[in-house]
UniProtKB/TrEMBL annotation:
It comes from Merluccius polli. Transcriptional repressor of genes that require a bHLH protein for their transcription. Plays an important role as neurogenesis negative regulator. The lineage of its organism: Eukaryota, Metazoa, Chordata, Craniata, Vertebrata. The gene is Hes5_8. InterPro entries: bHLH_dom, HES_HEY, HLH_DNA-bd_sf. Gene3D superfamilies: Helix-loop-helix DNA-binding domain (4.10.280.10). The keyword Hydrolase does not apply. GO terms for cellular component: nucleus. This is Transcription factor HES-5. GO terms for molecular function: DNA binding; protein dimerization activity. Transcription repression requires formation of a complex with a corepressor protein of the Groucho/TLE family. PANTHER family: BASIC HELIX-LOOP-HELIX TRANSCRIPTION FACTOR, HES-RELATED. Residues 87-98 have a biased composition (Pro residues). PROSITE patterns: BHLH. It holds the Pfam family HLH.
Amino acid sequence: MAPTVGHLHYPKENLTSSHKLRKPLVEKLRRDRINTSIEQLKALLGPEFLRQQPDSKQEKADILEMAVSYLKVWQLQPSKRRQAQQQPPPPPPPPPPQEAEARGDGYARCVQEAVSFLSESRSDGRLLDHFLGLQAASGQAASRVVSPPGSPLHQTGAAAAAAAAAKDGGGRSALWRPW
């Protein structure tokens, strides 16, 4: 004869009291999850919901119905979504000529101010040479911007480089540090 496992006996009072304590807590957590999800749906569907029912109170059932109807429409249009995803966005239109010219003038002015600052201070000659190269590459002459004669902005690129080298100690530059 096979051995049998005896019937385990748990006190019924202990099970029911813990069950009675746990059940309301579990139910409250479940309701909180439902309400949080409905609030998220409400936030996602907010503009759509207000367009259809602008002055009415939003009930949970209305929010769920809106979500279901939106998903149904969304499922019926997969080919349109695929086409929209496959097409690259159109390139932005080119800026008007005045805007491009203004941007170039602003860039040239910025480079000239950097050259002026670097010429006045005892900074690294390599950085000054870099900005002078940018100024020459942009095709903007230093004299294009109105500046008083004798100022570093009034000098041409070669003259500014020579002035910077003379201030720097004849070609021997100090070590540049970013701080």
